[in-house]
């Protein structure tokens, strides 16, 4: 599957946004880095999936709580409350993107080194519980 140039730019913006978020947290919740990361992430997402799909993703009824927390956390970062803002934003991120965690965990299990580590007995149970994977009754 080939990506359009717009989608490639969107992926780069989201990647830089995540990088600046991580860097802002590592540097003791540096507000400008966190704000820059938020702006880059939010500007890259519509370029990847399109503005209409982005709007529908954030406005779905079952995602309202996550949307409000995510954007409320961004607002708190912008008004210079970075620690509280990142905590609220993280809760919103989990609410919005939490359904993708089992898919990401399954993809990680198929990689060579990480997959072996994630398949160890106790680590597998803990990772499944964290990702919200439902266990089938045997």
From TrEMBL:
Membrane protein topology class: Multi-pass membrane protein
The UniProt record lists the keyword Cytoplasm: no
Keywords: Golgi apparatus, Membrane, Transmembrane, Transmembrane helix
Alphabetized InterPro entries for the sequence: Got1 (IPR045176), Vesicle_transpt_Got1/SFT2 (IPR007305)
GO cellular component: COPII-coated ER to Golgi transport vesicle; cytosol; endoplasmic reticulum; Golgi cis cisterna; Golgi membrane
GO BP: endoplasmic reticulum to Golgi vesicle-mediated transport; retrograde transport, endosome to Golgi
Cellular compartments annotated: Golgi apparatus membrane
Transmembrane residue ranges: 9-29, 35-56, 68-84
Family of the protein in this entry: Belongs to the GOT1 family.
Protein name stated in the entry: Vesicle transport protein
Species the sequence originates in: Kockovaella imperatae
């Amino acid at each position: 599957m080939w990506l359009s140039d717009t989608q490639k730019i969107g992926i780069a913006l989201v990647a830089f946004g995540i990088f600046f978020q991580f860097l802002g947290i590592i540097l003791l919740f540096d507000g400008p880095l966190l704000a820059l990361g938020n702006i880059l992430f939010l500007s890259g997402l519509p370029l990847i999936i399109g503005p209409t799909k982005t709007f529908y993703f954030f406005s779905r009824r079952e995602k309202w709580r996550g949307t409000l927390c995510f954007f409320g956390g961004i607002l708190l970062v912008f008004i210079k409350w970075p620690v509280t803002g990142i905590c609220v934003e993280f809760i919103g991120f989990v609410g919005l993107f939490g359904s993708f965690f089992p898919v990401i965990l399954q993809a990680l299990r198929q990689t060579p080194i990480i997959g072996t580590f994630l398949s160890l007995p106790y680590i597998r149970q803990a990772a499944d519980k964290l990702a919200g994977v439902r266990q089938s009754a045997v």
